[in-house]
Amino acid sequence: MTFAPTSGAVITEITALGPFFALHTHAVDARPVEPWVPMSRRLIEARVSAVRGWLAAAGEQPLAAVEVRVAASVTHLGLAARLLSPALAAFVLHERLLTFGLSDAHWQPVLGGPIPLSVPRTAVSAGPVPPEALATFLDGPIGELTTAMRPFSLSPHILRGNIASALNGAATMIASAAPELAERTRTTLTLLLDSPALRYSATTTANGGFRRRSCCLIYRAAPGHKGSLCGDCVLNRDAGRARSR
After folding, report:
1. pTM for this one?
2. Does residue 1 form part of some domain?
3. Domain count along the chain
4. Residues 146 and 79: beta-carbon distance below 8 Å
5. What is the pLDDT of residues 187-213, one digit of tens each?
6. Is residue 15 part of a domain?
């Protein structure tokens, strides 16, 4: 008889994949104790300001040189990657679903690396779920995160591209850490990219190539808006327009 792994065992396996997957857990009704804080909209908005300052300092330029919407996009992409990575891994490893609201998550909003993240102990589904169920995560905490970006004038096109890029990054890391899961991971990624929430946000090729159909704007954080483009950026296909957007 094959026994299904416990939620704790699933989280241990997810965490072993790397820092973008690492999860702590807490009781459902636990109040966060510093340095942990709830992932509230107010603190996400505060993080945009912190990221803006960090980007300005990295480019040795005044704060005003970095557009708020650029900092918001970088914030959204980073947090989406941090939330999506363990969710994708849970399904790829054991067909489990992570279910929690954004404010149920606890985090330490440090800059410069993957943030420490804690989810309720009940966040891992009790048993396997069909592939289609994984798309509900895009409407849950990821949808709430995207809603939190509304004050920053980011287009839905950019936000959808950020989510697609975050998923592809997570899939690439899983395949690198566990090559035996590469095919299953790519199949799951394709399913998610074809879901209504992300359809037409990116293009893929049979050999695993990926290109989003929008830009995360991070190149604009560099002095003179002349930063490097990300490897999956749509602007890499059209260098003539790369500095005009």
Report:
1. 0.92
2. no
3. 1
4. no
5. 999 999 999 999 999 998 777 789 999
6. yes
